[in-house]
Amino acid sequence: MSSETNAAVDAALGAAPIVAILRGLPPQDAISVVEALYDAGVRVAEVPLNSPDPFTTIALLRAQFGARMVIGAGTVVDVADVDRLADAGGQICVAPNCDTDVIARALALGLVPMPGVASPSEAFRAYRAGARWLKYFPAGELGLAAIGALRPVMPADTRFIAVGGVGARNAARFLQGGCTAIGVGSELYRPGDSAAAVRSAADALIAALAEPPAPATLIANPGATISESPLLDRSGTGIFFVDPVQSALHHIDLATGTERRVPTGLPLNAIGWRGAAMIGLADDSVVEVDPARGATVPLLRVDVGNGCRFNDMTIGDDGTIWAGTMHRGLLSGRGTLFRVGADGAVARCCEGLGVCNGVALIADGTTLYLIDTLSRTLIRFPVDAKGQSLGEPVIVSDFMGVPGKPDGMTLNHAGHPVVAMWGGGRIVELGADGSLHRAVHLPAPHVSSLCLDGEGRIIVTTSRMRLSPQVIDSTASGAVFRVE
């Protein structure tokens, strides 16, 4: 490896830890696009070899920018292409895979190899072949956890570049989680983008790198055994939640952390607002709850089935309650989603579920989300125009690779599901298609549920159920957190 080229790469990624991936960049647009990146502060760019005439583009960029930019090729999977890259003046050789022959040829020609790795075995093989910049691909949120675990066991001079599922929304977390740099493609450039659009996207990415990741701030620790169904109070300054094990209703002031707790007399598994009234779900009935005293008044009893109980619910703007059940012995296939109309009419809308959790309606009431904790799935139902029935369900996510079990859920202001992972010590935000957008870790293993405060921030409740005294003492289990 050329020491001069290696120093140039180190300096460029030290100035701005971004590799711009310019897939599809034609030669005629190359200079204006890269000039826009340079003006924003980006100092490294690669042109993937499945772009139009990539070697001509690389040669143009090297002639134009000289020492101002580090330029190379991506998607280099053939040794012969390494020679062509060197002839074009390229400086970095980026690959989606770990090919030791490509690494060796790049080193022999004075290029900096950046092979793709996705496992410890590939990372160590690439390092032994001489690569020091390792492209972790595909990254995404699961890759962030993997890099964090891999970083301490790799040699100290190993540097990771996270590529795939990385952008402005999570870049800072990758850089704080063990990566030296990130590779960003379509968020920075798509074929046909103007130089102005590229500059705007690069400015946003650079700004995001300067922002710390959203912290989880402890508001209060009431020591809840199980904290369920957090609900913003009517003033917007605090939350209620229930602890069915303690048969208690809690109120937490979000500004001061002041806690008030009242007994409910019977276990309440969920609460919600129907107009000005607080509605609660007992094991087999719907009740009205006095928020000040915890007293309950029965409204309706429901035949939930032998061995079953209500578990979670949401209430629509029209007063309709969508309430899910679970089997007390956690038998699968025994859970049911009920619709309880404002007139008291009860209907079974979906049977054969496991543990119904995280029931949520999107703002316009046309879609209902439901977590089935036993099957580790997020399910989406269309709601008919009159809000009377549900259409055919679709599984949105199976949370593959995400630690813990999905529990409570809310929808953020973008309408995206945000899910508490019981046993996983985190919350995760998903896209409408089930893609993992981000994860926020909390210092408590059992994350129970969550809601939004009046400013759109996420309020998270955690639990102490079945944790040892040692774990409780060493974590903030049972606490309430705010996530920006």
Fold topology:
Layout lengths: L2 H13 L2 E4 L5 H14 L3 E5 L5 H12 L4 E5 L4 H9 L4 E3 L5 H9 L3 E3 L1 E2 L2 H9 L4 E4 L3 H11 L8 E5 L7 H6 L4 E4 L10 H15 L6 E5 L7 E5 L5 E6 L4 E6 L5 E5 L6 E5 L2 E5 L3 E5 L6 E6 L6 E8 L5 E7 L7 E6 L5 E8 L2 E6 L5 E6 L4 E6 L11 E4 L7 E7 L5 E6 L3 E5 L5 E6 L5 E6 L5 E5 L6 H6 L5 E4 L1
Parallel strand pairs: 1-2, 1-9, 2-3, 3-4, 4-5, 6-7, 7-8, 8-9
Antiparallel strand pairs: 10-33, 11-12, 12-13, 13-14, 15-16, 16-17, 17-18, 19-20, 20-21, 21-22, 23-24, 24-25, 25-26, 27-28, 28-29, 29-30, 31-32, 32-33
Give an account of the 3D structure.
Strand 16 (277-281) and strand 17 (285-289) form a beta hairpin. The mean pLDDT is 93. This protein has ten helices and 33 strands. The protein is an alpha+beta fold and 484 residues long. It folds into two domains: 3-209, Aldolase class I (TIM Barrel), CATH 3.20.20.70; 216-483, TolB, C-terminal domain (Neuraminidase, 6 Propeller), CATH 2.120.10.30.
Features:
single chain, 484 residues, alpha+beta, TIM Barrel, Neuraminidase, nine-stranded parallel beta sheet, four-stranded antiparallel beta sheet
Concise synopsis of the structure shown:
It is elongated and about 80 Å long. It is built from ten helices and 33 strands. By secondary structure, it is of the alpha+beta class.
Q: Oligomer, anyone? A: single chain
Q: What is the helix fraction of residues, given as a range?
A: 10-25%
The proportion of residues in beta strands is 35-45%
DSSP helical segment count: 10
Report the structural category.
Answer: alpha+beta
- Radius of gyration, CA atoms, in whole angstroms: 27 Å
- Give me the count of strands: 33
Characterize the main sheet. Answer: 9 strands, parallel
Q: Cα distance, first to last residue? A: 44 Å
CATH-level-2 architecture of the largest domain = 6 Propeller
Low-confidence stretches: none
The CATH fourth-level homologous superfamily of the largest domain: TolB, C-terminal domain
Average residue pLDDT = 93
Look up the CATH topology of the largest domain: Neuraminidase
CATH class of the largest domain: Mainly Beta
Overall, the morphology is elongated
- The number of distinct structural domains comes to 2
Strand neighbour order, sheet with most strands: 5-4-3-2-1-9-8-7-6
